[in-house]
Protein backbone atom coordinates (compact mmCIF):
# COMPACT_ATOMS: atom_id res chain seq x y z
CA UNK A 1 0.00 0.00 0.00
CA UNK A 2 1.41 3.42 -1.02
CA UNK A 3 1.58 6.40 1.33
CA UNK A 4 -1.23 8.01 -0.68
CA UNK A 5 -3.42 4.96 -0.17
CA UNK A 6 -2.67 5.01 3.55
CA UNK A 7 -3.71 8.67 3.67
CA UNK A 8 -6.91 7.89 1.75
CA UNK A 9 -7.65 5.12 4.24
CA UNK A 10 -7.09 7.58 7.07
CA UNK A 11 -9.63 9.93 5.47
CA UNK A 12 -12.19 7.12 5.31
CA UNK A 13 -11.67 6.30 8.97
CA UNK A 14 -11.44 9.78 10.48
CA UNK A 15 -13.34 12.30 8.36
CA UNK A 16 -17.02 13.13 8.69
CA UNK A 17 -19.50 11.08 6.63
CA UNK A 18 -20.30 14.38 4.89
CA UNK A 19 -16.68 15.05 3.87
CA UNK A 20 -15.49 14.86 0.28
CA UNK A 21 -13.01 11.98 0.23
CA UNK A 22 -10.00 12.31 -2.05
CA UNK A 23 -10.54 8.82 -3.47
CA UNK A 24 -14.09 9.79 -4.51
CA UNK A 25 -13.07 12.82 -6.57
CA UNK A 26 -14.75 13.19 -9.95
CA UNK A 27 -11.23 13.51 -11.29
CA UNK A 28 -9.42 15.67 -13.80
CA UNK A 29 -10.31 16.60 -17.37
CA UNK A 30 -7.10 14.90 -18.48
CA UNK A 31 -6.54 11.62 -16.57
CA UNK A 32 -3.20 11.33 -14.82
CA UNK A 33 -1.31 8.65 -12.95
CA UNK A 34 -1.82 9.07 -9.20
CA UNK A 35 0.98 10.41 -7.00
CA UNK A 36 2.38 7.74 -4.68
CA UNK A 37 2.46 10.17 -1.72
CA UNK A 38 -0.20 12.87 -2.12
CA UNK A 39 -3.98 12.45 -2.50
CA UNK A 40 -5.51 14.42 -5.38
CA UNK A 41 -6.61 17.51 -3.45
CA UNK A 42 -3.25 17.90 -1.73
CA UNK A 43 -1.65 17.67 -5.16
CA UNK A 44 -3.99 20.41 -6.43
CA UNK A 45 -3.09 22.60 -3.46
CA UNK A 46 0.59 22.25 -4.32
CA UNK A 47 0.02 23.07 -8.00
CA UNK A 48 -1.81 26.27 -7.11
CA UNK A 49 0.78 27.31 -4.54
CA UNK A 50 3.60 26.94 -7.09
CA UNK A 51 1.88 28.61 -10.07
CA UNK A 52 2.78 32.07 -11.39
CA UNK A 53 -0.72 33.50 -10.93
CA UNK A 54 -0.50 32.77 -7.19
CA UNK A 55 2.82 34.60 -6.84
CA UNK A 56 1.42 37.65 -8.64
CA UNK A 57 -1.30 38.06 -5.99
CA UNK A 58 1.25 39.67 -3.66
CA UNK A 59 1.27 42.76 -5.89
CA UNK A 60 -2.45 43.07 -6.56
CA UNK A 61 -4.76 45.45 -4.71
CA UNK A 62 -7.25 44.18 -2.16
CA UNK A 63 -9.16 47.42 -1.38
CA UNK A 64 -6.75 50.33 -0.98
CA UNK A 65 -4.79 51.33 -4.09
CA UNK A 66 -1.10 52.11 -3.51
CA UNK A 67 -1.50 52.49 0.27
CA UNK A 68 1.18 54.32 2.25
CA UNK A 69 2.19 51.55 4.62
CA UNK A 70 3.41 47.97 4.69
CA UNK A 71 0.54 46.49 6.67
CA UNK A 72 -2.38 46.84 4.28
CA UNK A 73 -3.75 43.65 2.81
CA UNK A 74 -2.94 42.61 -0.72
CA UNK A 75 -4.83 40.00 -2.71
CA UNK A 76 -2.28 37.45 -1.48
CA UNK A 77 -2.62 38.20 2.22
CA UNK A 78 -6.41 38.12 1.77
CA UNK A 79 -6.10 34.68 0.17
CA UNK A 80 -4.00 33.39 3.05
CA UNK A 81 -6.50 34.69 5.61
CA UNK A 82 -9.35 33.01 3.74
CA UNK A 83 -7.36 29.77 3.72
CA UNK A 84 -6.66 29.91 7.44
CA UNK A 85 -10.30 30.63 8.35
CA UNK A 86 -11.47 27.82 6.08
CA UNK A 87 -8.97 25.30 7.40
CA UNK A 88 -9.96 26.05 11.00
CA UNK A 89 -13.62 25.38 10.18
CA UNK A 90 -12.87 22.28 8.09
CA UNK A 91 -10.66 20.73 10.78
CA UNK A 92 -13.28 21.28 13.48
CA UNK A 93 -16.00 19.72 11.30
CA UNK A 94 -13.73 16.83 10.19
CA UNK A 95 -14.09 17.80 6.54
CA UNK A 96 -11.37 17.58 3.88
CA UNK A 97 -8.79 20.19 4.82
CA UNK A 98 -6.73 19.63 1.66
CA UNK A 99 -9.74 20.37 -0.56
CA UNK A 100 -10.64 23.46 1.46
CA UNK A 101 -7.09 24.78 1.24
CA UNK A 102 -6.81 24.19 -2.51
CA UNK A 103 -10.07 26.04 -3.18
CA UNK A 104 -9.12 28.91 -0.86
CA UNK A 105 -5.66 29.39 -2.37
CA UNK A 106 -7.08 29.37 -5.90
CA UNK A 107 -10.28 31.35 -5.47
CA UNK A 108 -8.88 34.76 -6.49
CA UNK A 109 -6.22 33.78 -9.06
CA UNK A 110 -8.19 35.52 -11.81
CA UNK A 111 -8.46 38.88 -10.07
CA UNK A 112 -7.38 41.90 -12.07
CA UNK A 113 -4.89 44.57 -11.06
CA UNK A 114 -6.37 47.35 -8.90
CA UNK A 115 -8.95 45.10 -7.27
CA UNK A 116 -12.57 45.22 -8.36
CA UNK A 117 -11.94 48.46 -10.27
CA UNK A 118 -10.11 46.50 -12.96
CA UNK A 119 -12.81 43.84 -12.97
CA UNK A 120 -15.55 46.43 -13.55
CA UNK A 121 -13.71 47.91 -16.53
CA UNK A 122 -13.07 44.58 -18.25
CA UNK A 123 -16.67 43.55 -17.60
CA UNK A 124 -17.85 46.68 -19.40
CA UNK A 125 -15.46 46.26 -22.34
CA UNK A 126 -15.88 42.54 -22.99
CA UNK A 127 -18.88 41.45 -25.02
CA UNK A 128 -19.12 38.25 -22.95
CA UNK A 129 -18.45 40.08 -19.69
CA UNK A 130 -15.68 39.50 -17.17
CA UNK A 131 -16.09 37.97 -13.72
CA UNK A 132 -13.10 37.22 -11.53
CA UNK A 133 -14.41 33.87 -10.29
CA UNK A 134 -14.77 32.63 -13.87
CA UNK A 135 -11.37 34.08 -14.70
CA UNK A 136 -9.85 32.18 -11.78
CA UNK A 137 -11.12 28.92 -13.29
CA UNK A 138 -9.92 30.01 -16.72
CA UNK A 139 -6.50 30.70 -15.21
CA UNK A 140 -6.11 27.18 -13.85
CA UNK A 141 -7.66 25.52 -16.92
CA UNK A 142 -6.18 27.46 -19.84
CA UNK A 143 -3.67 30.15 -18.89
CA UNK A 144 -1.18 28.63 -16.48
CA UNK A 145 1.81 26.60 -17.69
CA UNK A 146 1.92 28.39 -21.06
CA UNK A 147 -1.67 27.57 -21.89
CA UNK A 148 -1.70 23.95 -20.69
CA UNK A 149 -3.42 24.71 -17.38
CA UNK A 150 -2.97 22.97 -14.04
CA UNK A 151 -5.45 20.15 -14.73
CA UNK A 152 -7.09 20.42 -11.31
CA UNK A 153 -9.82 18.15 -10.01
CA UNK A 154 -13.49 18.95 -10.60
CA UNK A 155 -14.14 19.65 -6.91
CA UNK A 156 -11.44 22.32 -6.65
CA UNK A 157 -12.58 24.07 -9.82
CA UNK A 158 -16.21 23.92 -8.65
CA UNK A 159 -15.27 25.58 -5.35
CA UNK A 160 -13.27 28.29 -7.09
CA UNK A 161 -16.07 29.03 -9.57
CA UNK A 162 -18.84 29.18 -6.97
CA UNK A 163 -17.21 31.10 -4.12
CA UNK A 164 -19.24 34.28 -4.66
CA UNK A 165 -22.35 35.22 -2.70
CA UNK A 166 -24.91 34.54 -5.43
CA UNK A 167 -23.46 31.09 -6.22
CA UNK A 168 -23.24 27.82 -4.27
CA UNK A 169 -20.53 25.13 -4.46
CA UNK A 170 -21.45 21.44 -4.64
CA UNK A 171 -19.22 20.34 -1.73
CA UNK A 172 -19.28 21.31 1.93
CA UNK A 173 -15.62 22.24 1.59
CA UNK A 174 -16.50 24.71 -1.15
CA UNK A 175 -19.27 26.16 1.01
CA UNK A 176 -16.76 26.70 3.81
CA UNK A 177 -14.50 28.74 1.51
CA UNK A 178 -17.48 30.74 0.24
CA UNK A 179 -18.27 31.89 3.79
CA UNK A 180 -14.62 32.19 4.83
CA UNK A 181 -14.02 34.62 1.97
CA UNK A 182 -16.71 36.98 3.29
CA UNK A 183 -15.56 36.61 6.89
CA UNK A 184 -11.99 37.45 5.88
CA UNK A 185 -12.61 40.46 3.67
CA UNK A 186 -15.25 42.09 5.87
CA UNK A 187 -13.02 41.92 8.94
CA UNK A 188 -9.63 42.68 7.42
CA UNK A 189 -11.11 45.50 5.36
CA UNK A 190 -12.42 47.07 8.59
CA UNK A 191 -8.91 46.78 10.01
CA UNK A 192 -7.38 48.39 6.92
CA UNK A 193 -10.05 51.11 6.82
CA UNK A 194 -9.30 52.01 10.45
CA UNK A 195 -5.58 52.07 9.61
CA UNK A 196 -6.34 54.40 6.67
CA UNK A 197 -8.50 56.60 8.94
CA UNK A 198 -11.50 56.04 6.69
CA UNK A 199 -13.53 54.91 9.71
CA UNK A 200 -13.13 54.13 13.39
CA UNK A 201 -14.33 51.23 15.50
CA UNK A 202 -16.94 53.61 16.97
CA UNK A 203 -18.50 54.05 13.50
CA UNK A 204 -19.65 50.42 13.42
CA UNK A 205 -23.30 50.25 14.58
CA UNK A 206 -23.61 49.21 18.21
CA UNK A 207 -26.24 46.55 17.52
CA UNK A 208 -23.82 44.79 15.14
CA UNK A 209 -20.99 44.95 17.66
CA UNK A 210 -23.23 43.52 20.38
CA UNK A 211 -23.93 40.51 18.15
CA UNK A 212 -20.55 40.01 16.48
CA UNK A 213 -18.00 41.57 18.81
CA UNK A 214 -16.23 44.81 19.62
CA UNK A 215 -12.97 44.13 17.74
CA UNK A 216 -11.74 42.32 14.64
CA UNK A 217 -10.50 39.47 16.84
CA UNK A 218 -13.86 39.10 18.58
CA UNK A 219 -15.81 39.23 15.32
CA UNK A 220 -13.65 36.57 13.68
CA UNK A 221 -14.04 34.40 16.76
CA UNK A 222 -17.85 34.82 16.76
CA UNK A 223 -18.32 34.10 13.06
CA UNK A 224 -16.04 31.07 12.89
CA UNK A 225 -17.42 29.55 16.09
CA UNK A 226 -20.98 30.14 14.90
CA UNK A 227 -20.41 28.30 11.62
CA UNK A 228 -18.77 25.37 13.39
CA UNK A 229 -21.42 24.99 16.09
CA UNK A 230 -24.33 25.26 13.64
CA UNK A 231 -22.81 22.93 11.02
CA UNK A 232 -21.70 20.05 13.25
CA UNK A 233 -23.10 16.68 12.16
CA UNK A 234 -25.03 18.31 9.32
CA UNK A 235 -24.83 17.98 5.57
CA UNK A 236 -24.60 21.75 5.20
CA UNK A 237 -22.51 24.76 6.22
CA UNK A 238 -24.71 27.30 7.96
CA UNK A 239 -24.82 30.09 10.52
CA UNK A 240 -27.46 31.02 13.04
CA UNK A 241 -30.06 33.44 11.68
CA UNK A 242 -29.03 36.22 14.08
CA UNK A 243 -25.32 36.07 13.31
CA UNK A 244 -25.85 35.65 9.57
CA UNK A 245 -28.13 38.71 9.49
CA UNK A 246 -25.55 40.71 11.44
CA UNK A 247 -22.81 39.71 9.01
CA UNK A 248 -24.98 40.73 6.05
CA UNK A 249 -25.66 44.09 7.70
CA UNK A 250 -21.95 44.58 8.45
CA UNK A 251 -21.17 43.86 4.80
CA UNK A 252 -23.74 46.50 3.75
CA UNK A 253 -22.14 48.93 6.21
CA UNK A 254 -18.75 48.30 4.57
CA UNK A 255 -20.11 48.95 1.10
CA UNK A 256 -21.57 52.26 2.22
CA UNK A 257 -18.64 53.48 4.28
CA UNK A 258 -15.54 51.87 2.72
CA UNK A 259 -16.04 50.16 -0.63
CA UNK A 260 -17.84 53.23 -2.02
CA UNK A 261 -16.06 55.77 0.14
CA UNK A 262 -14.56 58.61 -1.97
CA UNK A 263 -11.43 58.68 0.20
CA UNK A 264 -10.81 54.94 -0.05
CA UNK A 265 -11.66 54.95 -3.76
CA UNK A 266 -10.12 58.27 -4.77
CA UNK A 267 -7.53 56.61 -6.99
CA UNK A 268 -9.95 54.21 -8.68
CA UNK A 269 -10.88 56.64 -11.46
CA UNK A 270 -7.24 56.73 -12.53
CA UNK A 271 -6.87 52.96 -12.26
CA UNK A 272 -9.97 52.38 -14.39
CA UNK A 273 -8.70 54.83 -17.00
CA UNK A 274 -5.38 52.98 -17.18
CA UNK A 275 -7.04 49.58 -17.65
CA UNK A 276 -9.35 50.97 -20.31
CA UNK A 277 -6.50 52.57 -22.27
CA UNK A 278 -4.39 49.42 -22.05
CA UNK A 279 -7.29 47.34 -23.33
CA UNK A 280 -7.80 49.47 -26.42
CA UNK A 281 -4.07 49.74 -27.03
CA UNK A 282 -3.60 45.96 -27.00
CA UNK A 283 -6.65 45.51 -29.21
CA UNK A 284 -4.87 47.67 -31.80
CA UNK A 285 -1.40 46.22 -31.11
CA UNK A 286 -2.10 42.55 -30.48
CA UNK A 287 1.43 41.71 -31.61
CA UNK A 288 2.73 42.99 -28.25
CA UNK A 289 1.20 40.08 -26.36
CA UNK A 290 3.33 37.06 -25.40
CA UNK A 291 3.43 34.05 -27.72
CA UNK A 292 0.99 31.86 -25.81
CA UNK A 293 -1.81 34.34 -26.50
CA UNK A 294 -1.29 33.99 -30.26
CA UNK A 295 -1.85 30.26 -29.92
CA UNK A 296 -5.12 31.01 -28.15
CA UNK A 297 -6.19 33.24 -31.04
CA UNK A 298 -5.28 30.51 -33.51
CA UNK A 299 -7.45 28.12 -31.50
CA UNK A 300 -10.48 30.34 -31.96
CA UNK A 301 -10.44 32.54 -28.84
CA UNK A 302 -11.88 36.03 -29.30
CA UNK A 303 -9.39 38.86 -29.49
CA UNK A 304 -11.00 40.80 -26.64
CA UNK A 305 -10.99 37.67 -24.50
CA UNK A 306 -7.27 37.16 -25.01
CA UNK A 307 -6.50 40.83 -24.32
CA UNK A 308 -8.56 40.60 -21.12
CA UNK A 309 -6.61 37.49 -20.10
CA UNK A 310 -3.34 39.35 -20.47
CA UNK A 311 -4.47 42.45 -18.58
CA UNK A 312 -6.14 40.44 -15.81
CA UNK A 313 -2.84 38.66 -15.18
CA UNK A 314 -0.95 41.90 -14.59
CA UNK A 315 0.09 43.10 -11.17
CA UNK A 316 -0.70 46.71 -10.24
CA UNK A 317 2.91 47.74 -10.82
CA UNK A 318 3.20 46.00 -14.18
CA UNK A 319 0.02 47.69 -15.42
CA UNK A 320 1.41 51.07 -14.34
CA UNK A 321 4.71 50.28 -16.04
CA UNK A 322 3.04 49.36 -19.33
CA UNK A 323 0.74 52.38 -19.24
CA UNK A 324 3.73 54.63 -18.64
CA UNK A 325 5.64 52.94 -21.48
CA UNK A 326 2.83 53.33 -24.00
CA UNK A 327 1.28 56.67 -23.07
CA UNK A 328 3.84 58.89 -21.33
CA UNK A 329 6.77 60.59 -23.05
CA UNK A 330 10.00 59.09 -21.80
CA UNK A 331 11.04 62.30 -20.04
CA UNK A 332 7.83 62.23 -17.99
CA UNK A 333 8.07 58.65 -16.87
CA UNK A 334 8.60 58.09 -13.16
CA UNK A 335 11.97 56.57 -12.19
CA UNK A 336 11.71 52.83 -11.73
CA UNK A 337 8.75 52.44 -14.08
**What summary fits the major beta sheet?**
none
- Distance, first to last CA: 55 Å
- Runs with pLDDT <50, length 5+? none
> How many β-strand runs?
0
| Average pLDDT score | 94
Give, in order, the helices and strands. HHHHHHHHHHHHHHHH
Radius of gyration: 21 Å
User: What percent of residues adopt helix (DSSP H or I)?
Assistant: 55-70%
Strand content: under 5%
Q: What is the SS-derived class?
A: mainly alpha
What would the principal axes of the Cα set say about the shape? flat
Number of helices: 16
Layout of helices and strands:
Blueprint: H1 3-14, H2 40-50, H3 52-56, H4 75-92, H5 97-106, H6 116-125, H7 132-147, H8 154-161, H9 172-195, H10 206-212, H11 216-231, H12 241-259, H13 268-284, H14 291-298, H15 303-312, H16 316-327
Helix pairs in contact: 2-5, 4-5, 4-9, 4-11, 5-8, 5-9, 6-13, 8-9, 9-11, 9-12, 10-12, 13-15, 13-16
Amino acid sequence: MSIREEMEQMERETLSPYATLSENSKGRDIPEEQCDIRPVFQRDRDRILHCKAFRRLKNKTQVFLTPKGDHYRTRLSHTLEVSQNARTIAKALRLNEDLVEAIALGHDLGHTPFGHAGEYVLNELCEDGFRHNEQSVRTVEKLEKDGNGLNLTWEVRDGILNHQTKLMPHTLEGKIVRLSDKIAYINHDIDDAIRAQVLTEDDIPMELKKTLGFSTRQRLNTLIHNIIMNSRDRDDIIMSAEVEEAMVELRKFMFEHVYKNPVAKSEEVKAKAMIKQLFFYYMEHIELLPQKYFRMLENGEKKERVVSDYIAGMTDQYAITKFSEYFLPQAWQVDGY
